[in-house]
Amino acid sequence: MKKTESNKLALVLGATSDIGREIAIELGYKNFDLILTGQNQELLSQIQSDLVQTTKGNIKIQTCLLDITKTESLNSFVFALDPLPDFVFCCIGYYKDQNMARLKPEEFTKTVQINFIGIAIVLNLLTSRMEEIRSGKIVVISSVAGIRGRQLNYIYGSAKAGLTAYLSGLRNLLYKQNIHITTVLLGPVYTKMSAGHKLMPWITLQPKLAAKKIVQAGLKGKDEVYIHWAWKYIMTAIRMIPEGIFKRLPPF
User: Which of 124, 148, 201, 205 gets the most CB atoms within 10 Å of its CB?
Assistant: First the structure.
């Protein structure tokens, strides 16, 4: 895909998610050319069509089917990127019933594969290419659930904890290569993934606002950022609870 001469190019991994779609729209408003990935071509085409209308054709948009669990396809996808994107926004995530993930090995594997392993593999491939040109910015949505394991979501949280630690190491590794990694510690957002969960409105964001804040953090080159200010203080307090007390707490 050739970039528009005056535009930056952004790759949005997981563009068919609620937040991914809003991030694509926000980037389109900012005149980024876009490569959008997802597993549903109909949704990708609809997002592309909407963006063409709202941006009046001032940006180039390419769509690509990509399944993060099919690791054998990730190498060919990354090495087909020409040119490399200036920015990568990774919005991939998966969360289902915790008990199902505990009792069914295939669900456990899917949770860890999507939320950590697949993302890490594709970022390894992307950053190895970015090192060749010593340039690139990557913004990845992790979660406050990875800061301390809680009984309600400890399997999902453990995958996100692994992702956050991985991103910290990657940021350290690539700093001198002029490649920047932004970790987004996201709290709850009103999306399809959170449907059916009891969410507290005062600490839960709408997808559009979350996307706007994520894009701002990425463009400013933040290292690790809480998208909702309250979660920084909530998680600081949760981390300070002694384990002897923490293990006795009811679900929260």
Answer: 205
